[in-house]
Amino acid sequence: MAKIKNIKGRQVFDSRGNPTLEAEVFSENGSAFSIVPSGASTGTHEAFELRDKEKKDYLGKSVFAAISNVNNLISKGLKNIEVSDQTKIDKILIELDGTDQKKKLGANAILGVSMACCKLAAIEKKVPLYKYLSKNNDYLIPIPLLNIINGGVHAKNNLDIQEFMIRPEKTNSFSEAIRRSFIIIQNLKKMLIDTNVGDEGGFAPNLKSNEEAIQMIIESIEKSGFEPGNDISICLDVAANELKHPKTVEYFLNLIKKYPIKSIEDPFSEDEWQSWNKLTKSTNIQIVGDDLFATNIKRLKKGIDEHSANAILVKLNQIGTVSETLQVIDLAQKNNFKTIISHRSGDSEDTFIADLCVATKSSQIKTGSLARSERVSKYNRLLRIEDGLGKLAKMAKI
Ligand code: 2PG
Ligand code: MG
């Protein structure tokens, strides 16, 4: 198998137009690159994103220090390591850094390299990335969660819930799930005067309340000829860390009773463990920990022990390496937690998460609306994977 010859970092831009890091890994045969995404509603337990705060040429947002870590310490540390030895690569990266939250080298430097190595190894093996990442050549096409109304810190409107999503239920194929979503989004668009979109491609209108957003989505589902709750359900990401006015357990129980809501992410902030347990105990819908778990195995273990949720949102850059991400997914699935692979609000044309989802048989993917190329690229990648797998393509069921 090929060995790593050199690694190069460079500054590119994400979907919000902010600088981000791209890492390119070279073997004697070729190279592969990966682009690191960046969140806006970030939790304090996430791995550290290194930015050049003191440099003013990019308003403190450039990533040149992280790039220099890739070009020097990391490139030297990984030279001549087999590109397919992901466990070793990630172990070296973690050791080179030596801190809990990857504060020395920056999780952006580390993750860019970790993902690029993985992609290069797949190229060397001449298999698609999802095949390379799979443990036993068993795949599942995920159900998409499409964020069709954006609020919170992802939009400049007055909605404090961050994401109002639709989830197509019980479709036999990914293409059918996307077809339904497309019709609903087009019908929702017709109902709106302001059709500007937020960071994740969903509409970002000013509305009277969060409930009005839910009601408009229900209307657009019905106008499209689908039954809310049965054909299409509603999923929320409250992103409670960012709320000025926190919500209560009773608020959510009431919403669940009133509307066809099947999943709620981050209803409470990242350290409110008791409220999480109370809500999870009181409902049988999906309760998803994002900022709560931060794709961190220690926090997930606590959540499993304390029944704080029944699903985890998985974001590679919350933890910083591919291996640690795979371990978290494994632990979650062994404990019957649903795994939802997720984009960040600042994302790119990199489609790594689509392959990761299929390879780990995660039941759901969250990657924005059917708008903006950085979101649509993940859906297009999944359509390609589904097409490529042909009869072997199995759609996830909830
Ligand atoms: C979230 C994410 C992605 P951000 O909260 O789930 O939708 O947002 O990347 O801004 O943290
Ligand atoms: Mg979230």
Shape: globular
Number of domains: 2
Bound ions, cofactors and other small molecules, one mention each: 2-phosphoglyceric acid, magnesium ion
Q: What proportion of the residues form beta strands (DSSP E)?
A: 15-25%
Q: Report the major sheet.
A: 8 strands, mixed, barrel
How would you state the average pLDDT, rounded? Answer: 98
Structural topology:
Elements: E1 6-13, E2 19-26, E3 31-35, H1 64-78, H2 86-97, H3 107-125, H4 129-133, E4 143-150, E5 163-168, H5 174-191, H6 210-223, E6 232-237, H7 249-258, E7 261-265, H8 273-282, E8 286-289, H9 297-305, E9 311-314, H10 316-319, H11 322-334, E10 338-342, H12 352-359, E11 364-366, H13 373-389
Parallel strand pairs: 4-11, 6-7, 7-8, 8-9, 9-10, 10-11
Antiparallel strand pairs: 1-2, 2-3, 4-5, 5-6
Helix pairs in contact: 1-2, 1-3, 2-3, 5-6, 9-11, 12-13
The structure holds 2-phosphoglyceric acid and magnesium ion.
How does this structure look, described?
- The protein has an 8-stranded mixed β-barrel with strand order 4-5-6-7-8-9-10-11, surrounded by 6 helices.
- It has 13 helices and 11 strands.
- It is an alpha/beta fold and 398 residues long.
- Helix content is 39%, strand content 16%.
- It folds into 2 domains: 6-126, Enolase-like, N-terminal domain (Enolase-like, domain 1, 2-Layer Sandwich), CATH 3.30.390.10; 133-392, Enolase-like C-terminal domain (TIM Barrel), CATH 3.20.20.120.
- The longest helix is centred in the N-terminal third of the chain and has 19 residues, at 107-125.
- Strand 1 and strand 2 form a beta hairpin.
- The model has no long low-confidence stretch (mean pLDDT 98).
- Residues 39-42, 163, 200, 237, 239, 290, 313, 342-345 line the site of 2-phosphoglyceric acid (2PG).
